[in-house]
Structures are given as structure tokens and as C-alpha cells.
Write a structure and sequence with these properties.
By secondary structure, the protein is an all-alpha fold. It contains eight helices and no strands. The chain is globular and about 70 Å long.
């Protein structure tokens, strides 16, 4: 006759496992709730922006001020980021292509690398670093000073008064910044190609035009605008929900930057896969 003996786990082990499960479940639920609030704010910004445009209540002055501020904090960093990026693409791809004896294809590689991937990602990262931090800090400071509660007390929606103009400014600046990065990156790659790589200007631009179509530019602009929208929604949500004094504002700024950059990377991966399936690279 077999005798079964149940051995209970040590109290420390069961307690640690319970704490881990509780932390994981709490973190997951908190992340889902945060994602839901972000989606709600995005829908409210879109609906409210259209309604404000139709009714003539749109905050044009606030949008212009925010757009100019975004230009001042992102234009020079965009140029400084685009130059080394275009150079790196030309050097790395040029070394590989040179071994294959197809030096003229450097133009195609530079065009595809900068336009399709480099420029929109650089735009999103710049807006996520400079734009998201500025927006989250501004709205977070207003929140802990009870200015947001004062607006609600007066019957003014903080989303309509503060978030929608910032979203509109971001959607205007993002494609312009993307075009600036494309121009600077291609020029930098061209200089390296005709200099150290010894590629003739004619062959560079010929392959650039053969493999790069106007559709690539439109996709790049759409990606930049989508990245900018993600950045501004996350920054506004984190700023309007800041609490706990200056420490809460700092935490909100940090969360806005991290979440926006992570969201940009994930969305870029999804868009790249979709574009690759339906619009494969082909000679124009």
C-alpha cells in the first residue's frame, strides 16, 4: 500500500511566487488601462479637431506657437542627425557594393535607406525626444499647478484647449522635418559617393531615380505624420495625468519619451512589413 506524503513549499518560496504573480498582473492591467486611455485621447483629439475646425473654435494661435517651438528645438538636431546617417549608409553599403563591382548602385541604396527608413525614424526619434519631453513637461507643470482643474471648473476642455493645437502643430512639422532630413541625408550620401567612393554623379542619380519612386516619398511622409501623432498623443496623455509634484512631472516626461519611442519602433516594423508585401522594391 503506497503512502502519499504532500510536502508544502517553504513559506518564503510561496510568498515570493505570489508577489511576482501579483506584480506581473498589476503591471499588465496597468499597461492595458494606460493604452486604453491613450486610444481614447487619440479619438477625442481627432473628433474634437474636426469639430473645432467646422465650428470655428480651433486654437490657431496656440497651434502656431507650438509649431514654431517644435521647429526651434528640432531643426538643427535634424540636420546634425541626417548628415552622419547619410554618410554611414553610403560608406557601409558602398563597401559591400564595391566588392560586387556595382558601385553605381550606391545611389539606389542611399535613396532607399534614407527615404524609406532613415528619415521617418529620425523624425520620430527627434520628435519623441525633444517634442514629447517639452509637451509632457509643459502640460505636467500645468497639471500640478491645478491649471488643468481650473480649466475644467470653467467648463473648458483641456483636450480642446491644449492637446488639439499641439497635435495639429505636430502633424504640420513632422512631414517638413522629414523632408529636411531626406534632403540633407541624400546630399551627404552623394558627397561621400562621388568623393571617397569614386562614383560618377550621373550613375549615382541614375540608379537613385531608377529604384526610388514617388510612392516611397509619400510613404515616408505618412510614416512621419503617424509617428508625430503617436508622440503628441502619448506626451499629452502623460502630461495631463501627471501627479505627485515635480517628481511626477519628471516621471511623466520620462514615460512620454520612452513610450513614444517604443511605439514608433513597433509601428515602423508593422508598416515596413505591410509595405514590403504590397509594394515591393522594383526598378522604376
Amino acid at each position: 500500500m503506497a503512502i502519499r506524503i504532500d510536502v508544502d513549499p517553504p513559506p518564503e518560496t510561496s510568498s515570493a511566487a505570489r508577489i511576482v504573480r501579483q506584480n506581473v498582473s498589476d503591471t499588465t492591467l496597468s499597461a492595458l488601462r494606460t493604452f486604453g486611455r491613450v486610444v481614447d485621447m487619440a479619438l477625442e483629439v481627432v473628433r474634437g479637431g474636426v469639430a473645432d475646425m467646422v465650428t470655428g473654435k480651433f486654437q490657431w494661435r496656440e497651434m502656431a506657437c507650438q509649431a514654431w517651438y517644435l521647429v526651434t528645438v528640432t531643426a538643427i538636431p535634424a540636420i546634425l542627425m541626417a548628415v552622419p546617417f547619410g554618410v554611414v549608409v553610403s560608406v557601409q553599403v558602398g563597401n559591400l557594393i564595391h566588392q560586387l563591382g556595382a558601385d553605381s548602385l550606391i545611389g539606389a541604396a542611399s535613396g532607399l535607406g534614407v527615404i524609406q527608413q532613415g528619415a521617418p525614424m529620425a523624425t520620430g526619434l527627434l520628435l519623441g525626444g525633444a517634442g514629447a519631453s517639452a509637451i509632457a513637461a509643459d502640460l505636467g507643470a500645468r497639471t500640478i499647478r491645478d491649471e488643468i482643474d481650473a480649466l475644467r471648473t470653467m467648463g473648458i476642455s483641456p483636450v480642446h484647449r491644449l492637446a488639439i493645437p499641439r497635435a495639429a502643430a505636430m502633424l504640420i512639422i513632422a512631414p517638413l522635418l522629414n523632408i529636411l532630413i531626406i534632403f540633407v541625408g541624400i546630399v551627404a550620401g552623394y558627397v561621400i559617393a562621388i568623393g571617397p567612393e569614386h562614383v560618377t554623379p550621373g550613375s549615382y542619380w541614375a540608379t537613385f531615380g531608377s529604384f526610388t519612386a514617388l510612392t516611397d516619398l509619400w510613404i515616408s511622409l505618412v510614416k512621419a505624420m503617424l509617428f508625430g501623432f503617436i508622440v503628441v498623443i502619448v506626451a499629452c496623455q502623460r502630461g495631463l495625468e501627471a501627479k505627485g509634484g515635480p517628481r511626477g512631472v519628471a516621471d511623466g516626461v520620462n514615460a512620454a519619451v520612452v513610450l513614444s519611442v517604443a511605439g514608433i519602433i513597433v509601428v515602423n516594423l508593422v508598416i515596413t512589413q505591410i509595405v514590403t508585401m504590397f509594394l515591393p522594391v522594383r526598378v522604376a
